[in-house]
Amino acid sequence: MNVRRSATALAALAALCTAAAPAAFADASPSPKPSGPALPKGLYGSKDPRFDGVWRQSLALLAQDAVGVTPAKSAIDWLAGQQCEDGGFAGYRADPAKACDPKKGEFTDATAAAVQALAAVGGRGSTVEKGVAWLKKHQNDDGGWGMNPGGPSDANSTSAAVGAFAATGTDPKGVKSAKGGKTPYDLLLGLQLGCDAKKGERGAFAYTADKGGAGTAAANDLATAAAALATQGKGFVFEPAGKDGGKAPEPLDCGAGKGDGKGGGGRPAGVEEAGRAAAAYLADTMAGHGSHLLSSMPGAKDQPDFGGTADAIIALAAGEHSATAAKPLQWLQSEKNGALAWAKGDPGALGKLVLAAHAAGADPRSFGGVDLVQRLNATGPKPESVSASGSRADSGKDADGEKKDDDKGGVGGVWWTVGVFMVAGIGIGFLLSGRKKQQL
Fold this sequence. Notes:
Layout (H helix, E strand, L loop, with lengths): L8 H11 L33 H14 L2 E2 L2 H9 L26 H14 L3 H13 L17 H13 L16 H7 L30 H10 L40 H18 L17 H13 L3 H12 L5 H5 L3 H13 L12 H6 L7 E2 L5 H4 L45
Antiparallel strand pairs: 1-2
């Protein structure tokens, strides 16, 4: 799902909306240590979970399941217990007995990430079904989703929802809004920049629709990483093609007559072309910065975005461009670049790195000389079991000790067997890493 937040998150969110910045797959430094009651025993991480509890728990479970680790039952119980009565998830509920605020207290990204995680581990079919129903209920007329129910649709939240549908066997192309019959891809493709954009931004996605008119939307790296994954019809976990897989992504074809300079010219013809163009943008952007993305947050200095880079790697791998993702992945593994220090002790960040490595065909147990899986396991309750081969398919059981089958999860089953992300923010991305402290 890097992936990808402080007490000033509401103000930051306002800045994000006006500056077309990301939300779902962004990562930030760990939350401060909690000053209140002791944390639940099943929760991963020791930092304040108020902004990212559900997100980091979901990424941790997804990453563990992807590499053959069966999470502790208490960890799965905690995540399932965070679900609100109507099926949605908040960023964190200190008291699950207290009713959620359906308009402000529930989040698309948290719900989408939790759905993916609980579908992956199995045995929580009714919880997964309620989560999927919540997402369908809160789809906007334009086919997308906002951070909160009824909020303006954005690329990250919409991509996170796409990941949840894909992970539960629901074709995102068939999820249509009640009014207008729009799909998530109607919204996403409308946010992609075409040949009328600046040369270096063609193929990128904007975070949300720009009110300044056609041709004025701003390219956003995290939104692009989230949407690039969603256009593949995939969530944080999918069967990796391998480190040598695929061809280099193809940039948007902007030949003669395809850009009119007035907005809307030379756009991708469909979802597949949109995905290739987004992947090409990500590859070129990372190459231009030395094999990584820079922070897209408003007012941020030109500093590496480790979670965003992991998201981009996952998106490239999903499009079978793993060879293109090799250099960014190598950059993340270098101790001097700081990604390992950034992720230390943070289950969400560690989960994002595990998913990125696994997606690109690398070994997360030997990541720059570090065993990421061991570090991730150490942030939460002891796993039920750890596969000797490191394969998700090898574990063969869900958290209740029952054999997994294609019908577990309750909504068409889980269609992927060897998994790998986000998001993130977080993300769409299962984005986001993730929305962390933006999820107030």
